[in-house]
Design brief:
Layout (H helix, E strand, L loop, with lengths): L1 E2 L8 E4 L2 E11 L7 E8 L5 E7 L3 E4 L2 E12 L2 E6 L5 E4 L15 E7 L5 E5 L3 E9 L12 E6 L4 E5 L7 E5 L4 E6 L2
Amino acid sequence: MATTADIRNGLCIELNNDIMRVIDFQRFQVGRGSGKVWTKLKSSTTGKTIEHTFQSGHNITEVRVERRKFQYLYPDGEDFVLMNQETYDQMTVPGDMIENGKFLKEGDTVDVLFHAQKETLLSVELPQTVVLEITYTEPGLRGDTATNTLNPATVETGAEVRVPLFCDTGDFIKIDTATGAYMERVKK
């Protein structure tokens, strides 16, 4: 049994018969009252994000989680087929369990979180950044660089990203998978 002092980002806890992952937290104390811990939690079953406040010292049930490496093989309709890199077992993951799955390219490695005691799938985490090729974008106008204007561009996975005017079809770009934002152009 853990307490609110053990709360950290990425911790999985059991709350209201659901397994929640801590996305963000903040400790605060008002006046002479007892301290509180504000948390932002994401449900592993529904994917919804909630905010919950605990009293300092409150007992919480920590869930032991195992992180395993899987390779993305191919899409199966709305679902994703992944392969365990150690046992070569394949599994199909529902598309709504992978946030920003549109940036996954065949052969990419992802982290899959499992509940250690029950062996149930909790979530799939993409790498922080991916490098993808631009397959189509409108050419920028010469001399139109006075402002930070962004063009829509389609990348090799079919996802659409906003890129600066100097990016052309065939360029490789680094994308932040959490926000879907362009980071930089990459030379291959």
